[in-house]
């Protein structure tokens, strides 16, 4: 078996949303400082970390988009939601700033001879990670990708998908993220209505397309958090 790392590195200088705190990873204790506290040859170092619970590769908890005290936070979601069967398809041909529709999904499933099973995670490759990190233009990161329509997300929910994963910072069409949009965040609205998870800012290699595999993306057990950074991996048979 092979483990494929699907996670972005968490580091200062990334693309955080304007209302998110900037990632900070700073020394809290150095080897030089701690060595003064001990007799003999021992020292340690530790880091202080500041970040949003939606930093880098992360999963949204249900309380992120479902209001009220009964919506589960990340620490209350069962671990089996983050250890599932998964498939990966290719939507790199769908133009940026447009919607991925049910017909795109059906076409890819037929082309790749894949089927969606109850409880699956559905990952889709677009090449967005490579394009955005090879460019110095931040607009590539924020705007140059396609996103799932309401109908496409409902299509996945109807077939038993429990988690949707993408390379962009959102599963949405980036033109529909604003208060004045006709329906802001339509895919998140479906996740809200159907109790689905979504996982964003992944690194999905093209070679994963067309495969069925195990998807492992365990969150930190953060009390009350609306999401968590993850170390996402695909476990495939050689």
What brief labels describe this structure?
single chain; two-stranded antiparallel ribbon; Glucose Oxidase, domain 1; 238 residues; alpha/beta; globular
Structure description:
- The protein contains six helices and 13 strands.
- The strands form three sheets. A nine-stranded mixed sheet has the order 1-13-11-5-7-9-10-4-12, covered by helices on one side. The chain has a two-stranded antiparallel sheet with strand order 2-3. A two-stranded parallel ribbon has the order 6-8.
- Helix 6 links the parallel strand 9 and strand 10.
- Helix 5 packs parallel to helix 6.
- It is globular.
- The N and C termini lie close together (5 Å).
Provide the fold topology.
Blueprint: E1 2-5, E2 24-29, H1 31-35, E3 46-50, E4 58-60, E5 83-90, E6 99-100, H2 102-112, E7 121-125, H3 128-133, H4 138-143, E8 147-148, H5 150-158, E9 163-165, H6 186-194, E10 197-200, E11 212-216, E12 227-229, E13 233-236
Parallel strand pairs: 5-7, 6-8, 7-9, 9-10
Antiparallel strand pairs: 1-13, 2-3, 4-10, 4-12, 5-11, 11-13
Helix pairs in contact: 5-6
